[in-house]
Amino acid sequence: MEAIKNLPVAIIGAGPVGLAAAAQLVRRGLKPLILESGPSAGTSLRAWGHVRVFSPWRYVVEAAAAELLRSTGWNAPDDDALPTGTEIVEQYLEPLARVPEIAKNILFDAKVSAITRQGLDKVASQERDAAPFQMRYTDKTGTERSVIVRAVLDASGTWSRPSPMGVDGLPVIGEKSASDKIAYGIPDVTGRDKADYAGRCVLVVGSGHSAINAVLSLLDLQATAPATKVLWALRRNRIERLLGGGLNDQLPARGDLGLAAKAAIENGRVRLLAPFSAQSIQTAGDGLHVEALVDGQPEQIAVDRIIVATGLRPDLDMLREIRVDLDPAVEAPRKLAPMIDPNLHSCGTVPPHGVVELTQPEPGFFIVGGKSYGRAPTFLMATGYEQVRSVVAELAGDHKAAREVHLVLPETGVCNVSSSPSAAPSAGGCCGGPAPAKVDACCVPDVEVKEAGKSGCGCGSTAPTQSETAAAE
Ligand SMILES: Cc1cc2nc3c(=O)[nH]c(=O)nc-3n(C[C@H](O)[C@H](O)[C@H](O)COP(=O)(O)OP(=O)(O)OC[C@H]3O[C@@H](n4cnc5c(N)ncnc54)[C@H](O)[C@@H]3O)c2cc1C
Known about the structure:
Blueprint: H1 2-5, E1 9-12, H2 16-27, E2 32-35, H3 43-47, H4 63-70, H5 85-98, H6 100-103, E3 106-107, E4 111-117, E5 133-138, E6 144-149, E7 151-154, E8 182-184, H7 194-197, E9 201-205, H8 209-224, E10 229-233, H9 239-250, H10 255-266, E11 270-273, E12 276-284, E13 287-294, E14 297-303, E15 305-308, H11 337-340, H12 355-358, E16 365-367, H13 381-395, H14 399-403, E17 462-463, H15 466-472
Helix pairs in contact: 2-4, 2-13, 8-10, 9-10
């Protein structure tokens, strides 16, 4: 037993939450072992590095991490400024990963494929709790390796598992074979990926923060490439409230662009398709034909590119040999799920939580960070930092600290710079306070269906679908 206690605590992923967990372990005198699939810290944030987040630096930098960084002479960024993903990586995560106590315990290009108990499969119960964990990973040469650890914090996020386009949760027929013309998440349409989008007709699918970002960036691109056309497909028609009250009020940093988006919809520069449900996709020359139901009517929509921003999912494959208990709908730890269910909560109504909610039937194994929210879109770094503070306190034997709540979410300050961190939670905030009335997921107001604007943008012109033609005949 004593020997197991001397083993390191594995952390899967060197994102903001994984590295915060490492800093907490160091603070408590425990040894972390961080396995990161990418070549450097913050690999997922790099993928959306051009996006400016809605939380100012003060909610991005974790307390134990800041302590370690300060000991190296680090210059803390301005508390009130809103960083981009790349700035978070370059000004915070990479310097943190270089702090000696962390640097000597990180393996990059180490992709974890499985976790088990040493010598025990999932069914074996005898002396299970006394066995250390065995982690299987692949190094950069593709060689399979394994390592023995005392506990595991899975902070691998959900970025690598985007949801597909189908409203039923499945890829639309033809979606996989059209993958060279489909991007998932938030491509950098005005920078790195500009050549793929400039002057083209682009269909954006989704209504969350990522979809809004993609649409607004395409509008930016229209300024320099006026032939760029934007179609915005929403599963439900929520756009009027989204733009009227939601986007401008709750993303003040992008308020001007929100107004531009509204104007663009009104004057036909963005064509809304809502309620939208894609049925199939076919490659047609250099572009795609999407067969869809739009407001109940079949349409065939011609586009050049599709951006799918319909959410993210946890990778559960690597957890196959350990005992985990997840909510069947949200795919989050069962006790946490009702607190974050996007059917009931915005991120502002998620209370701080820790080891009690994150404990699994497999002692010593915890899902933390963005992955702990499963399919719910409301995760905040600040909440993840509180999770790992609590879990690490538990691993260190400080059960009292593990059950205390140290995080106070401010009024709206996680989303914007206007509030004080000590302010008590109140209604009206997004992602930092209780949800405003009738708000569902983070920053996405729950609205009544409204007739979609149908002025065409040139592309996306609709032809009757085969079934429609048949019906007419
Ligand atoms: C565009 C966008 C904007 C956001 N804005 C905000 C904001 O303003 N405020 C806020 O609080 N939150 C925001 N979030 C939400 C959330 O805080 C971030 O997604 C955050 O990066 C989650 O941190 P994480 O450490 O849990 O996971 P990630 O940052 O996703 O890190 C996970 C790490 O694990 C690695 N990994 C994955 N699989 C494996 C494996 N099998 N083996 C080894 N390593 C693996 C990845 O490479 C990655 O480095 C935003 C999210 C997005 C996408």
